[in-house]
Amino acid sequence: MVISANYVHIPKTRLKFSRKCPICGEMLRFGIEPEIIKSRDFYPFPHIILHGNPIHALIAYIDAELKVRAIESSPSIEILREGATFNSLLQKWSNPF
Ligand SMILES: [Zn+2]
After folding, report:
1. Ligand 1 mean position to 71 CA, how many Å?
2. 74 occurs within a structural domain
């Protein structure tokens, strides 16, 4: 399988966080795209960081002051097997935040 790698890395917001995952204990660094922050109509909103092997999620709740209000984690993940999701995952991977 050939994967086209035409994705352009665009630097995103300087708004960055780090939190320790309750499941694996890893300190994770993450950031949030400005378009996401501007388009919120409620706070806090969840920001999900998929990571690890086996894959699991750290969920950070970002409040209106753009601070991490709470975190939780989940080992329950499902990634739908269809082309649009796969392409979107590749884009996220190449430009994670
Ligand atoms: Zn973890």
Report:
1. 12
2. yes
